[in-house]
Amino acid sequence: MKIVIDAMGGDNAPAATVEGAIAAATEWADTQIVLVGDEAKLEPLLSKSGAKPANLTVRHASEVIGSDDEPVKAVRRKKDASMVVAGRMLKEGEADAMISAGNTGALMTAGLLVVGRMEGIERPALAPMIPTIDDVGVLALDLGANMDAKPEHLAQYGLMGSLYRQKVQGIASPRVGLLNVGTEPGKGNELTKHAYPLLEQLPIRFVGNVEARDVLTGACDVLVCDGFAGNILLKSLEGTAGAIFALLKEQFSSSLKSKLAAAVLMPELRGLKRKLDYTEHGGAPLLGLSRLVVKSHGSADGNAIKNAVRQARIAVQNQLVESISKEISGK
What we know:
Blueprint: E1 2-6, H1 15-27, E2 32-37, H2 39-48, E3 56-60, H3 71-77, H4 82-91, E4 97-100, H5 104-115, E5 125-126, E6 129-130, E7 138-141, H6 151-167, E8 175-180, H7 190-200, E9 205-211, E10 222-224, H8 227-252, H9 256-275, E11 283-287, E12 292-296, H10 302-317, H11 320-329
Parallel strand pairs: 1-2, 1-4, 2-3, 4-12, 7-10, 8-9, 8-10
Antiparallel strand pairs: 5-11, 6-7, 11-12
């Protein structure tokens, strides 16, 4: 198995991607890992880390797509960008999966223009895991790849999400819910009203509408929504979690008594923070592409990159893309 990593994408690149790649290559000796990026920047980082694992190599790419680049123009003009080169390697069969923490819009564009869309899929979806209080998590899609969607797109999201949780995470019969403003079938806007019956007709375990307040309590295993509503949900949850921990830190450092209480509670607080930490989940697959592409968080650290590799390995081993393609096309 070979996994390519866009070494120059992300807020902490290339240091974080190198760190994560080394950790992954060390743990999974049966997996070839290729860092795609500027050799002049990557090699010193690899040398500084000590002995480079034998299954870790570098593919030079002279350009970088930044967070401020316009996605379509960047992908079309920067032919030697690390993200584009990695996508081309995936398309041409030089790799089994690709990981990037770079510009989300550019990665989706590279997925469509370079890697290619799966037959029968109109809109690929970004599908990250949202932590839940029962530690099972919910796979939510789409959370930002497409701002607008049709009912048929949401139905495809439901099917792809269900297959992902089966194949990659071992849930035999995932519960699929539709993000809405109420649980009754007739609730919502025109999009959700038309998507509801389409989801009911699919060979999935559709549990109906799910309200945002019930997402973290494990109301479903797969949450279906359009990219606009989904991205607002994700950013709201991330902001709330960050604000809660900031308030806790403020309160626990306000007096000697609270500092002593914090010292006693520290193991539990660390466990809570870990439960809500996106880096433990690795990344979000772009479901609906012809090959496996995983989007890691823009601020991913080495741990997040390593977990993205773990996630990609499991998906490849369980033939996720092939399973989705077979279900969608009926072949």
